[in-house]
Amino acid sequence: MKKILFVSHCILNTASKVVLYNKEEIDAEEDLRLRFLSKAIASGIQIIQLPCPEFTLYGPRRWGHTSNQFDNVFFRNHCRNILKPVIDQMKEYLRNEDFFEVIGVLGVDGSPSCGVDYTCFADWYGSFDCREGLEDTLSSCKLIKNSGVFMDVLKEMLKEEHIDDKIKMTSLYAPEPEKCLDLIK
């Protein structure tokens, strides 16, 4: 029986991520990502890459955003559109349970799109040009206990298809490495 795992796009393709500048954070996530992928490959897990809603909407030269900026009907519709074929794949793998075991979905906590348990939130909007209190605005970004918008839409779609109880969702999160490493048995 083949084990199937759906992963956030940037777990296989870090080139799709927003450019980050916190070297310590980057190194910790990269270390966990490589440990996870090595363990998954060594265990014979079949990995299916989810599309990246941020890259497919804004491209590689985008600014960092927060989940509340993406929480709008336009971004949610974009997520639904790119997730439709993924849902169909999940349903087909689940329908053929003699051949496949869908072990879950792996997101990336902290992401405004792909966070499963944690996402970033801030009251950012408008032009940065001539904005007073810009440092205060930028420092207002915080990690909150909530899903990113893409994963929230995925959860909604799984529920609509009545397969939410069959798909475990967890995430890559450097401060809690067991979340993803325990997914692979």
Description:
- This protein has 185 residues and is an alpha/beta fold.
- The chain has one domain: Rossmann fold.
- The chain contains 8 helices and 6 strands.
- It has helices at 9-12, 23-42, 53-58, 67-70, 73-95, 134-139, 149-160, 178-181; strands at 2-7, 46-49, 100-108, 118-121, 142-145, 169-172.
- The strands form 2 sheets. The chain has a 4-stranded parallel beta sheet with strand order 2-1-3-6. Strands 4-5 form a two-stranded antiparallel sheet.
- Helix 5 (73-95) crosses helix 7 (149-160).
- The longest helix has 23 residues, at 73-95.
- It is globular, with a radius of gyration of 17 Å.
State the main characteristics:
single chain; 185 residues; alpha/beta; Rossmann fold; 4-stranded parallel sheet; two-stranded antiparallel sheet; 8 helices; 43% helix; globular
Ordered list of secondary-structure elements with their pairings:
Blueprint (H helix, E strand, L loop, with lengths): L1 E6 L1 H4 L10 H20 L3 E4 L3 H6 L8 H4 L2 H23 L4 E9 L9 E4 L12 H6 L2 E4 L3 H12 L8 E4 L5 H4 L4
Parallel strand pairs: 1-2, 1-3, 3-6
Antiparallel strand pairs: 4-5
- Which architecture per CATH? 3-Layer(aba) Sandwich
End-to-end Cα distance, whole Å, is: 14 Å
Helix coverage percent: 40-55%
Which spans of ≥5 residues are poorly predicted at pLDDT below 50? none
The side-by-side strand order for the widest beta sheet comes to 2-1-3-6
Indicate the radius of gyration in whole angstroms. 17 Å
Mean pLDDT across all amino acids: 92
State the secondary-structure class: alpha/beta
- Beta strand count: 6
The best one-word shape is globular
String of helices and strands? EHHEHHHEEHEHEH
- Overall number of structural domains: 1
CATH topology: Rossmann fold
Question: What profile does the largest beta sheet have?
Answer: 4 strands, parallel
Proportion of strand residues: 15-25%
Q: So what's the CATH class?
A: Alpha Beta
Number of helices: 8
